[in-house]
Amino acid sequence: MIWEVFRQSKEGGTFEYCRDVHAPDREMAKQFAVIQHGRRKPTNALWVVPQEKIASISPGEDPGESAAEGGSATWVVFTPNFQGYQTEAGTVEATDNAGAKTAALKEFADPDDKELWVVKEQLISEVNGTQVAFGGTTDKAYRFAQTYNVDPAAEEVEASEGEQVEAER
Length: 169
What we know:
alpha+beta; four-stranded antiparallel sheet
């Protein structure tokens, strides 16, 4: 089964699509998402969603008839950012996919958008920093020579050279 993964880089930020993982169930998908998408870039939380539960619609497309029966649910809407990656835009209330698509188009559609994604909020599984330690970025300052303390070594070399000169005399 394919699970789509969305990453939030800092608390309060939006979730941005960062690719998918293949996993047999939700728990494995969350673990794979942490391993593949939460270890290199700064990560506050990840969302994991079954791919087949994401409904997509393009501006100008007919969302279909909404069966306005049953209770309303919250749907998360994703729109493409400037790089083309789907980014969390907000939420809409609807009773079904068609209603969510209609509401998303009305509230978030931009004529330049290729497609919007909508997913029922209750289908999103979250992994956050209280559940797992994300990798984040590594401090690589050790790679730069100016971060080393070379004074003791320089003093030792100077003393050794002095001893060498004395020995040669």
